Amino acid sequence: MSASSITAATPVDDPSSPPGGSVLAQIREHAALAPALARRWAWDYLRELGDGGRRDELAALFALGTAPEGPDGPMEGLIVGKLFGIPETRLANPLMKIDPTWRGKTFDLREGTGFNRLSPLARYSLRAVAPLYGGLRRAGAEVVGFGFDHKIDRAAYPPFNQVRALDYSPAQYRNPSVRTFPIKRTRDEIVELLPGLYLGRALLTLPDGEVRLIAYFALREFSREPGAQS
Questions:
Q1: 186 occurs within a structural domain
Q2: pLDDT digit string (tens) for 97-116?
Q3: Positions of the region Disordered (predicted)?
Q4: Does residue 152 fall inside a structural domain?
Q5: Which residues pair with 186 in a beta bridge?
Q6: Strand partners of residue 157
Q7: Is residue 16 very low, low, confident or very high in pLDDT (cuts 50, 70, 90)?
Q8: Could you give the residue ranges of the DSSP H alpha helices within the chain?
Q9: Where are the alpha helices (DSSP H) in 32-103?
Q10: N or C, where is the chain less crowded by C-beta within 10 Å?
C-alpha cells in the first residue's frame, strides 16, 4: 500500500470529515503496527499535498496535530510545496527547484535549543541574501546554523492550538533580519501527526506587527535498515 492508494481509497474531500482528516486517520491506524512505514506514507502524502498546492488541506492537517513531546535529535526535513505570502518568494521558489538547500533540523530537547542543517551549497547561496551572517559551520557532509530556542506554546496564528514553537530571535544566535532573509522575525511551529512525524509551518512577523503564514514543512525521524553502513 502507498500514500496514493490510501488517498484513492479515502478521498480527502469527504464531506463527513475535515479535509485531510480521513487519510490521516487511516495512516494513524497503521502506525501502531508499522510505525516506520506509516511515517513514509504520511511523508509522501504531505509531499503530494505540497506539490498540488493544497494548502487548505495542510492547514486542516495542522489543526489535527498535537503538541509534541519531541522532537529530540536530528530530523530529516522536507519543504512542503512552495513558499508563499511575501514578494521574496518569487526569487526563492525558483532557487529551491535547483537545490532546496535545507536538509532538516536538530533538537536538544533537554536544553530547549536547536539548529538547522543545510547542504554545503548554502555557504554560497546565502551570501546573496544574508551576506553578513557568519553563523554557518561545517558539520560532516552538511553545514549547520540558524539556531533557535523551542518550547510548547500557544500558536501565534489560527487555529491557535498548542504547538512546539521555535524562536529565532535570541541575540546569541545572531540570526539575520534583512528583508531578503528575515529569519530573526520568523517563528516556526510544529505539531505531531504520528510518532516521529511532524508537520511544521513558518510564520513571519511583518514590520507592522502582522503575523503571516509563509510556508509549510515536515520533519521525521531518520529510518535505517539494520546492518546498513553509514
A1: yes
A2: 544 689 999 999 999 999 99
A3: 1-22
A4: yes
A5: 204
A6: none
A7: very low
A8: 3-9, 21-31, 35-51, 55-64, 89-98, 122-129
A9: 35-51, 55-64, 89-98
A10: C
